[in-house]
Amino acid sequence: MDELDAALLRFLQEDGRRTNRDLARELGVAPSTCLERVRSLRERGILVGFRGEVDLAAMGRGLQAVIAVRVRPPTRKVIEDFQAFVERMPEVISVFVLTGSDDFLLHVAVRDTDHLHAVVLDELTKREELADVRTSVVYGHHRRTIITPG
Prior knowledge:
single chain; alpha+beta; Arc Repressor Mutant, subunit A; 2 domains; 21% strand; transcription regulation; Dimeric_a/b-barrel; DNA-binding
């Protein structure tokens, strides 16, 4: 990865809807060069997609929480089955599979505390493999939107 690739990634992370012509003009390269570089970034698996970012509060899901979960027994099948279950839950934004005292961290976005309570008590605790669950409400969340090469 060279400086041109890094600049392309930065510009596309700032605004994934930029046209190839706009990117080429910003970078001072020919549009064909720019197009080939973007293709190469995709083929190498560095640039994996483009998506729209949403405002959770505007969608009626303004309360976020992180839920730490332990499952038992900690076998591959139990972990994979639980992961598949939580990935289907519409409230779950991210699933982190961990080492250490917790097996999962679930980042959820819900309407309000009643909805959060229902997710934990009505959805998660119905799973037989659930050994422990701890919920923390998120007061603020900042996600880095531009990732630079190593």
